[in-house]
Amino acid sequence: MTSSTPPVVLANPNTLTDRAAMGLPDAFVSRGPQYLLAGHRDLLAAEPDALVAVAEDPAEPFARRHAAGTVLGLVGDPRIRPEDPPMADVPAARVRLGLEPGEVGAVTGRWRHAGVEEEWIAKEAPVYEADLAAFRIALYPVTNAEYRLFLEDTGRTGLPTAWRFGVYPEQLANHPVWTVTPEAADAYAAWLAARTGRAFRLPTEAEWEYAASGGDGRDFPWGDDFRPGAANTVEEGPLATTPIGVFPAGRSPFGVHDLAGNVEEYVADDYAAYPGGEEIADDLAVSQGVYRVARGGSFTRFGDLARVRRRHGWYKREIYAMGFRLAETP
């Protein structure tokens, strides 16, 4: 990981090429070592539990966490339990969510360099209150390994477009699956619920935001200020998905990983205005019509998308890395 900042974008990223929207030049840009495990060969002899400890240790440098997660993806990651995914318990609460209308302009201004437009942020307003029952949310997004089991068991077509030629990327077993449709994410949750007898589903928008923020009004899972090293976003990330949990400084107050970056995450809701708000017909609504809301940033996008209040969706281009995580009704 570098400490450099990508060039500013300024224009609406949906009007640019994918590389330009990521703030990258046409020439090759290196964000990591040529050989990922160089300098970390001792990890090849480590036991899986020891590798998990390295991967999720914020005191370890990113290169070593990344290397440990990569080895886990090759030898078998004990955090991947397809029929019993690790979950965080989130208590029932009455929570304040959304953004004050008077803050829309300031938020837009802070992220103008990333091409953010005011109507995108206006979708976050106004602030509203929601009564949430207790629920559980997965500590990690659904991985390639888990999604493979789903496909093998169901025979579904519509393979993730990130699987080149539809071939399972075995070296990325513990990376989040992307890009899948919202209907496929729903089908995965329904399949796992039927297979296990548990009430798996996608989180609602309100549940996702509460799980990411802890309900205290923070801007990011870790606090109010954007920290490039806390999430896999385009600012300093490796420009590719990473193994689950290797950005431990970005955990939410409930201990949930990867809510701010790696891949965007569908929730259960289609876009609608918040109570007391107005429908925003931004470029996503105009081009896609009714669309499923996604939350959280990704390796292809700037940190504005990693804000816990940010509402977006699948603008059907490769730069939109769409994944999902599970919730469960106790």
From TrEMBL:
Q: Which InterPro entries has this protein been placed in? A: CTDL_fold (IPR016187), Sulfatase_Mod_Factor_Kinase (IPR051043), SUMF_dom (IPR005532), SUMF_sf (IPR042095)
In which domain of life is the source organism classified?
Bacteria
Pfam family of the protein (one): FGE-sulfatase
Sulfatase-modifying factor enzyme-like domain ranges (all copies): 115-327
Which N-terminal stretch is annotated as signal sequence?
none
The molecule here is called: Sulfatase-modifying factor enzyme-like domain-containing protein
